[in-house]
Amino acid sequence: MYKDNEGKVIGALIIGRDISAIKKREKERIDFENNLELNVQQKTAELIIANKELAFRNEEKDKRAAELIIANKELLFQNEEKEKRANELIIANNELLFQNEEKDKRAAELVLANKELLFQTAEKADRAAELMIADKELAFQNEEKADRAAELVIANKELAFQNEEKDKRAAELIIANKELVFQNEEISYISYHDFLTGLFNRIYFEQEKKRLEASDQLPISIIMGDINGLKLVNDGFGHSKGDELLVEISRILKSCCRKEDIISRIGGDEFGIILPQTDTSSAQLVCNRISDTCNKYALKGSSICPSISLGHATKNMRSETLDSIFMTAEENMARHKLLERKSIHSSIIASIKAIMFEKSQETEEHAERMVQLSKSIGMAMSLSEKQLNELELLSTLHDIGKMGVSAEILSKPGKLSDKEWVEIRKHPEVGFRIAQATPELVPIADFILYHHERWDGRGYPHGLRGEKIPLLSRIVSIVDAFDAMTNDRAYRLAMTKEKAIEEIKINSGTQFDPKVSRVFIENVLGQKWEQVS
């Protein structure tokens, strides 16, 4: 509460903080972590299946190798048997030849020879049968050998394929592990950094406060900073320009601090800096360095200069807590902002003018003519100093809402379409919202809203009639119309001063306040009302 010298309450200061961006970032981080956890689970399941498949193939490979060893041993045994059978056949043939030769010699022993011959013949038949069986078996073994050789070729190919698959799986595992490491690093970075500025975020700031709380790095200073006019830049230039302002402020803070200092964005337009082993005087020097850099700096492509209110506090004893130091720094920042209110006010008003002249096609000369003529009417009507100041500000910024209208419509040389007129008619309401969101313009917000109302109630946006329209809005309405008529516009050439005066009188009582019209013509323009045709 603000009180005068007699203790009477005359005002109040209310401070709020928009944490929508923080909540949005937290939700995005949680969604990202959930998606990452699902991806990791899927990759893990795929790796388990791949490992089981590889183990199964290795078992099959071992079975095939064992079968090949057995087949090779069996083939060797069969070859040895074959050689034995061949030797026996040679001996049998030699024996038969010997017996035929002995036949002539053994004539005397014919009986025995015949018996022996019968016996040998029977043996010969048996040997022949055995030889045929041996030949068949040898043929079968050769076929088996060919089949085993074919199977061995197939097994070798399958083994080579399995080895290739194994190498592929190993390569996939290496890639998956690298990707997992990268994702973990990225998650860690996102968890502790602000997405827009790259500075540390509130989470990291609080963790560092806890860590330094028990450290021996005294003295520890904390600097709190709050950007001036960020909402104005967002509304006037768009949020992309506001983001650019945040990034540039972040760069300024980093350039003015040491590497070991912890610089964090802890709110939408708030920054916190922890300076280990830094006393109060050194912290003040850092604040001065930041302010000086902001004063010398200009954002590219506009005349908006970064402005930030700063406050600092220092922990000198272990008994003090960094939370209390943080609160003290915030209080000092708020006090500093209040003490510099007039300077900040002037800076913001200058920024608003720069934005309007840049985006609304209005010129500084038009604004100066509006101020001069409006103040002349106000002085002729004996308005108060407060009203004259508000009238001067209103004359300059009454069309601030045109910042929301496209340049193509504002500079169109021909007749506007119905759709384009709808857009043009929105600018008083857009201007009202911008003024309501800017504390320095709140006193003239209603005047901006109603400066296109008509005396007969046919104006916009609310169709107010007569004295229900604020006086300052009625004054600006006449002056704006007169200046528009007497200066070239994209859609027509200027008319003479005399013709413009006639138009003001003709529309007095319908479009314009008749009393203000008469004061304007007689007291400001120096024409007798009755002499105007």
Task: Please specify the SSE layout and strand pairing.
Elements: E1 2-3, E2 9-11, H1 20-105, H2 110-192, H3 202-213, E3 220-227, H4 230-237, H5 239-256, E4 262-265, E5 270-275, H6 280-296, E6 308-315, H7 322-339, H8 341-359, H9 364-380, H10 385-397, H11 407-410, H12 418-425, H13 427-436, H14 445-449, H15 471-485, H16 497-506, H17 514-524
Antiparallel strand pairs: 1-2, 3-5, 3-6, 4-5
Notes on the structure:
This protein is mainly alpha-helical and 533 residues long. Helices cover 66% and strands 6% of the residues. α4 packs antiparallel against α5. It is elongated and about 185 Å long.
Q: What fraction of residues sit in β-strands?
A: 5-15%
Structural class: mainly alpha
Helix content: 55-70%
Q: What ranges have pLDDT less than 50 throughout 5 or more consecutive residues?
A: none
TL;DR?
The chain has 533 residues and is mainly alpha-helical. It is 66% helix and 6% strand. The strands form two sheets. It has a four-stranded antiparallel beta sheet with strand order 4-5-3-6, with helices on both faces.
